[in-house]
Design brief:
The protein is an alpha/beta fold. The protein is built from 16 helices and twelve strands.
Length: 443
């Protein structure tokens, strides 16, 4: 089967790139150009014609990639044509007319590359992340994973465990011989080292996932203290309705921002107070849940509503910033109040000290991402399989004597399988759909 798709962005553009991959690629090039096959990997100017009626469609560049030296590992071609809707649609219509040729599914070119061992699963995922990157930090993380540092580490652990398993299976094959004590200790020492390295990787505060998905910031506080106004200020648009009437915000309003290269998701929440209104109560519960899930909480108060003790607890202190809005009101009451965390005195209306509040947020973000060069985990499935690998290694290390090594071999096999699933070294067909469905068509 041969697949094709528009690989450049949809809409009008100077140039559009249409990609073709599969066994029919050479036939398609010859039919659409009515001439000889271009030299491999060399952009060649060609007239693009409709083979059914001989009419000229466009004039553009054709690049041919001979298997296996192509992105997909198959014969592949790119048609660089003018990016009008009419030209692109006509080329796609012509391609549709070839036998055993169909429109590619989302991410199918990259999926074919993975299936042909051109890339591993981590690189395939990082390509998708790079395409979806909206901030500088997301771009850098995707490129770092693409470079192969993560897959090298996972593969190193996997190969080391395979070698250890071979030593254990040698004992199983010759049960009459005991494993020498020094070999037994060596095996456990090597496994302990890998287990500890995996634990360090797991203790990363989910930095990789946060960079990929966005750093969650929740703005919480009593009603009518300026939470929606602060959201609008940070997002530089009227994202939320602002009203002097308390309880205007009932649901959670989210804005995705790029804060100096760091992806941020800021949530404006309902004012937290006791209420007999069923809908408002649901909004308050949503606000509390969003605060508990957030990576950072901005607690916003005003001088008349400083008693907000529900959120001043040990669980939230390390991820909280306290801000007091409407600083022109009753400033003396602020000065005489004791707070467990230092407040930022601001005025959203007068644009006072908001720059200092933003700097405090940036400082929290920078502390979170100081060690981004060590990121290995960027998706929840990576974390799940690493946890399972760690669990089986722990069980293996609890085996007390040589007689238990027969059972220990299975624990190592399971550890190896979970590491292999991360990089695609074992059957991962069940997860391919969820990975490549998130790609755009044409990649």
């Amino acid at each position: 089967m041969t697949v094709y798709a528009l690989s450049s962005g949809p809409g009008i553009s100077g140039i559009a790139v249409i990609r073709v991959s599969g066994s029919k690629t050479e036939e398609i090039i010859l039919s659409l150009t009515n001439g000889s096959l271009p030299k491999t990997k060399e952009a060649t100017l060609k007239k693009i014609i409709n083979p059914k009626n001989g009419e000229l469609i466009d004039e553009g560049l054709v690049i041919f990639f001979k298997r296996p030296n192509s992105y997909t590992g198959e014969d592949m071609a790119e048609f660089h044509v003018h990016g009008s809707k009419a030209v692109v649609q006509e080329v796609l219509t012509v391609l549709e007319g070839f036998d055993d040729c169909r429109l590619a599914e989302p991410g199918e070119f990259t999926k074919i590359a993975f299936q042909n061992n051109k890339i591993n699963l981590l690189k395939a995922e990082s390509i998708g992340d790079l395409i979806a990157a909206e901030t500088e930090l997301q771009r850098k993380q995707a490129l770092r994973i693409m470079s192969g540092d993560s897959s090298k580490k996972f593969n190193f652990w996997r190969e080391e465990l395979i070698n250890i398993l071979a030593d254990i299976e040698a004992k199983i094959d010759f049960p009459e011989e005991d494993i020498p004590e020094n070999l037994s200790q060596n095996i456990k020492s090597r496994c302990e080292k890998i287990k500890n390295e995996i634990q360090v990787t797991l203790d990363d505060n989910k930095t990789g996932e946060i960079i990929r998905e966005g750093f969650k910031i929740a703005i919480v506080g009593p009603p009518n203290v300026g939470k929606s106004s602060l959201l609008n200020y940070l997002s530089k648009r009227e994202a939320a309705i602002v009203s002097e009437k308390a309880g205007t915000t009932r649901d959670v309003i989210e804005c995705h921002l790029d804060l100096e290269g760091i992806p941020v998701i800021i949530s404006d929440t309902a004012g937290i107070r006791d209420s007999s209104d069923e809908i408002e109560t649901k909004g308050v519960n949503l606000a509390i849940n969003r605060a508990e899930e957030a990576d950072l909480i901005i607690i916003l108060l005003d001088p008349k509503k400083l008693d907000f003790k529900g959120f001043f607890n040990e669980k939230l202190h390390d991820k909280s910033i306290l801000a007091i809005n409407k600083s022109d009101l009753l400033i003396e009451s602020i000065n005489n109040k004791e707070f467990k965390i230092e407040p930022h005195i601001i005025s959203i209306k007068d644009n006072k000290n908001l720059d200092k509040l933003i700097e405090a947020v940036k400082l929290k973000l920078n502390k979170q991402f100081l060690k981004t060069n060590n990121v290995l985990i960027t998706r929840s499935r990576h974390r799940l399989h690493l946890k399972e690998c760690h669990k089986h290694l722990k069980v293996f290390l609890e085996k007390k004597n040589n007689q238990e090594f027969d059972l220990a071999a299975e624990d190592l096999r399971l550890s190896i399988r979970h590491l292999g699933t991360i990089v695609g070294k074992v059957d991962v067909e069940e997860i391919l759909g969820s990975i490549f469905d998130n790609f755009c068509i044409g990649k």
